[in-house]
Amino acid sequence: MVDKVNIFWFRRDLRLDDNVGFYKALHGKHPVLPLFIFDENILGELPEDDARVTFIFDELQKMRNQLQEHGSSLAMYHGTPKKVFENIISEFEVQNVITNHDYEPYAKDRDAEISALLEKKDVGFFTYKDQVIFEKDEIVKNDGDPYVVYTPYMKKWKATFSEDKHVKIYYTSQVLDNLVQHSLLPNVSLSDMGFKRSKIEVPDYDVTPTTIQEYEKTRNFPAQEGTSRLGPHLRFGTVSVRKMVKKAIAKKNETFWEELIWREFFMQILWHFPKTVDNAFRKKYDHVPWRNAKADFEKWKEGKTGYPLVDAGMRQLNQSGYMHNRVRMLVASFLCKHLLIDWRWGEAYFAEKLLDYELSSNVGNWQWAAGSGVDAAPYFRIFNPTTQIEKFDKHHSYIKEWVPEFDTDDYPEKMVDHKEARERALETYKKAIN
Fold it and tell me: Which residues bind FAD (predicted)?
């Protein structure tokens, strides 16, 4: 076994190439021990057949196989990060731990705890920016305040961006010889961790030139395969955001590029305003007296509201772990406005089901739908779930795919009348926030 090692801790960056922290580690003085921790603090809340755990596990096995071709491997542990690092430090002579930044509240607390532990043991802790182009307060107003409206943020983002500077690719293939030469590093199985393989698979992403070029034309129609399916891959880092931005620029597709910027907008909002995970950004919206009828919530979850586009979206989510973005806006609006159910209930359900669940985007979009967030839709904008069909699924192709009993006697009655629910929502919101 080698004398001294540097550890690279994989987290939301499940790839070997164009990974900033891994690149920096491989260029260090000591051999690199690659590490991944299945964090008990996170996994404890998940169902045993969670599709995201299966996806992460499979991606790690691919990486492990690639690293074994270089005489090394990937150490995989199941436990709390603190306990895992205490064990590793007792087993290896660790010089530095290197990883990439993570911005969510839990991640910030976890990293502070690990940093303090390593400092006591005289081990260095270095982190790098990898999952975004701009982070934290790199894009702020001239007075230093964060942007809370997307369009000016996006304009400043683009004005600051330089292709030469911000999308450099960090190739690692030439330095993979600087790895710990030990191919039998610790491994864990799904069953070791109390999980079983999910039947839901994360689909491959599609960023072919055609998808990017046709993006504006197709992305709003849920029956068409017009989206990139990039969400889970950006979430878990199986692709590099720098390469995706490069593709958007190469194809001169502003809409596709701006979707990537939306992701960073919500990330910096969460960084600056971590309380928005549980509290309305616009505080007066925490006074809305939600009905929170559990029976209504169950109908919404099961896709049995009597509104076909809402039901199609919820059933697509339940069966595939995915829901088309246009439909996400509708089902969220329906829950908050038509049913007057707290957006936090919907956010938690999406967190449980979505393959591409990203805390910042999920909270940001749910608060947008509820009218309570940054850059929010005004509370009086209430989607009509029937006219939305005419706009986005005129031939009922998407509805028929997910709601086979549509247009038969087996399809449920509408659980609420649109006009009455709309008026109830307007009255309830108006009283609460004025």
Answer: 215, 256, 259-266
Task: Determine the Cα angle at 380 with ends 374 and 384, to 5°.
Answer: 110
d(CA 267, CA 360): 5
The CATH number given to 277-433 is 1.10.579.10
CB 389 within 8 A of CB 396: yes
CATH of 1-130, one of 3.30.1490.100, 3.40.50.620, 2.40.160.210, 3.40.50.720: 3.40.50.620
* Tens-place pLDDT, residues 124-144: 999 999 999 999 999 999 999
What integer pLDDT is reported at residue 84 of this predicted model?
Answer: 98
Spans of all domains in the chain: 1-130, 132-168+207-272, 277-433
Task: List pLDDT tens digits, range 329-376.
Answer: 999 999 999 999 999 999 999 999 999 999 999 999 999 999 999 976
| Residue 260 annotated as binding site | yes
| Residue type at 398 in one-letter notation | Y
Res. 415: pLDDT tops 90? yes
Three-state DSSP state, 37: strand
| Architecture of the domain whose range is 132-168+207-272 | Alpha Horseshoe (1.25)
Task: Tell whether residue 55 is among the known ligand binding residues.
Answer: no
- For 321, residues 6+ apart whose C-beta sits below 8 A from its C-beta are 51, 200, 202, 353, 354, 355
Check the annotation: does 256 bind a ligand.
Answer: yes
- Check the annotation: does 420 bind a ligand: no
| Cβ neighbour number for residue 341 with a 10 Å cutoff | 21
